[in-house]
Specification:
With 310 residues, this protein is α/β, with parallel strands linked by helices. It has one domain: Rossmann fold. The chain is 34% helix and 20% strand. The strands form three sheets. The chain has a seven-stranded mixed β-sheet with strand order 4-3-2-5-7-11-10, sandwiched between helices.
Length: 310
């Protein structure tokens, strides 16, 4: 099977100049008057809700150095620093535009900013951190796309990632199908972080294995594809993540894994009004459309909390 490489590096490093067209869960919950907050059991931003959730698994008094990779506008990291001023934070992003946004959001806090590609950082860089966070961005990493009957022009980068995919397949028994789309960037980055022995890791992204509880299937339709799916966005494509592959790598490195939909820490209050909105095939207002997409994302996104075992 031949492959081509999907990469968003050039877009994020040189073209991205707004997130206005991409409504992430974090951004959707940032305004205090967000309609998305009104349907949750707890009216709070994503960062606050996530921090409170992680407290169940992570002893934050023992955490000092935290790294957020690809922090968007900086809202999540600001919430963490508001709740825990003792944290020493580093924000790493490949996008100069987003890094500038983070600097503005976090200007009151003691944060080190780094414009860099996380995939090009070595193990020694990661092992200085107690907690690493990647929220809603792993689908941006390089992806190998199978090409039936098409032989793409060979490049050094493509050959590198194909060789790495073969190595990972053998090393971790991932059993890639012959025509499988491979989240090669996400796999390599997690492997590097696990090699560093980082005590706590949090990851979240659109999942190709996500499913909705039986009790909600009449309101929310998600059919797990089982393989990464393309998401077409302005100027680039992203791919959903096969979380079972990430989980397998983490477990081989002796991490305890907690996995689920982000609805676990952003629980919805399912009122009659919300049910009516979710049943509506064509939303009547922009607000209804936003709420429909938001609730869908709460179950389409999965998270991994990884805790290194002794």
């Amino acid at each position: 099977m031949s492959y081509c490489l999907n990469t968003t590096e050039n877009y994020h490093a040189h073209e991205l100049d707004t997130l206005g067209w991409e409504l992430t869960v974090c951004n959707a919950l940032y305004p205090e008057n967000s309609p998305c907050r009104n349907i949750l059991k707890t009216n709070a931003s994503l960062g606050v809700s996530l921090y409170r959730f992680l407290e169940k698994y992570i002893p934050f008094p023992a955490v000092r150095d935290i790294l957020e990779i690809g922090g968007g506008m900086g809202y999540l990291l600001r919430d963490f620093l508001e709740l825990n001023p003792d944290l020493r934070a580093t924000a790493l992003d490949i996008s100069p535009y987003l890094l500038n946004q983070q600097k503005e959001t976090l200007q009151k806090y003691n944060v080190q900013f780094m414009q860099a590609d996380a995939l090009k950082k070595d193990v020694a860089f990661f092992n200085t951190f107690d907690l690493i966070i990647m929220n809603e961005n792993m689908g941006d990493l390089p992806t190998l796309i199978s090409q039936k009957g098409i032989v793409p022009s060979p490049t050094e980068e493509l050959a590198f990632y194909q060789n790495k995919a073969s190595e990972l397949n053998t090393r971790y028994c991932l059993n890639f199908a012959s025509d499988e789309i491979i989240n090669i960037g996400a796999l390599l980055l997690l492997e590097n972080i696990c090699r560093a022995g980082v005590k706590y890791i949090y990851l979240s992204e659109h999942s190709c294995e996500a499913a909705v509880p039986n009790t909600l299937r009449e309101l929310i339709y998600i059919a797990p594809a089982g393989f990464p799916e393309k998401i077409s966005l302005k100027g680039h494509n992203e791919y959903t993540i096969k979380f079972s592959h990430l989980q397998k790598i983490a477990e081989i490195f002796n991490y305890k894994v907690h996995r689920g939909p982000i609805a676990d820490f952003l629980p919805v209050e399912f009122s009659d009004k919300l049910a009516a909105i979710l049943h509506t095939k064509i939303p009547a207002t922009d607000e209804q459309e936003i709420i429909q997409q938001f609730v869908y994302d709460l179950y389409k996104y999965e998270y991994l909390i990884l805790i290194k075992q002794s």
